[in-house]
């Protein structure tokens, strides 16, 4: 066990630190920068000096009155973070070591990455892979990890480059954009589906061989089965889109489903499953076991690293300025990643 290290700008464990805090007040919510005391951090084995975080839709949702995302108040949002270990009671995580964390209860049921200090269970923290900076890790973030997990699920199911076109729905979004880039880098023939036609040039730049509209997925709408079009698919939408994908998968193909921007209810039939033996592969990036998270992050630092990673950053912000991009994300006005420069924020 190591002794608690001094906190940045706090003079020690008894001091305070900068954070962006969301508080519930009956039917209202307030959100903004505050100073918190070290004793307000939840229990944990590892104390991290946070350097970078990323803004995700879930982070914006916790600022909405009546939301069901935040499970405690006050709450420091930030579902992913990267930084340096200040103190640790866990073997393999040493002071001064670069680390990252995401998923679990971070930023929803316990304080997350929008603070200069985080205290977490050791099992939630993984070493920063060699060759990957803290900023690059947060550019990839939860969205990139989810895309990598989707690709990994498809390849475990047997998908290989050269098998045929791979569809990505919701391709202009965070997970979709990352999936397009990763699949293309692996040599797959990527078909990107989006309802935002203006995003077509960007998606082609990321590696999509073809960009289609939402309604172009299914070549036989209204029928229980369409043509066998896709060797695999990454679905970030759910709702009415997922049944269209299932109807048009090739025999034995799979779709990795991670999103519900199109709705949580899915209405389909058993025919794709019992006549084409397709597979619906669930993708959960929140509770992924630590060993698998480490393996995927090692791949994200290597062959799965998006080629155009720096171009995926829309803006950088600080804790003091964070309220404005959170509001714009809720309004659908943010295209790429928003990074939070936490150290000194």
Furnish the topology, listing elements before pairings.
Layout: E1 16-25, E2 28-37, E3 46-55, H1 57-61, E4 80-88, E5 98-102, E6 117-120, E7 125-127, H2 134-156, E8 165-169, H3 174-185, E9 189-193, H4 200-206, E10 210-212, E11 230-235, H5 241-248, E12 249-257, H6 271-275, E13 279-282, H7 290-300, E14 313-317, H8 323-330, E15 337-341
The CATH class label of the largest domain is Alpha Beta
In total, how many beta strands? 15
CATH superfamily of the largest domain: Medium-chain alcohol dehydrogenases, catalytic domain
Query: What's the alpha carbon Rg, rounded to whole Å?
Result: 21 Å
Residue share in β-strands = 25-35%
Sum up the overall morphology in one term: globular
* Number of alpha- plus pi-helical segments: 8
Major β-sheet annotation: 7 strands, mixed
Low-confidence stretches: 1-12
CATH topology descriptor of the largest domain: Quinone Oxidoreductase, Chain A, domain 1
Structural class: alpha/beta
**SSE string:** EEEHEEEEHEHEHEEHEHEHEHE
Could you say how many structural domains there are in total?
2
Distance between the termini: 30 Å
* Helical content (DSSP H or I, runs of 4+): 10-25%
Mean pLDDT: 92
CATH architectural type of the largest domain: Alpha-Beta Complex
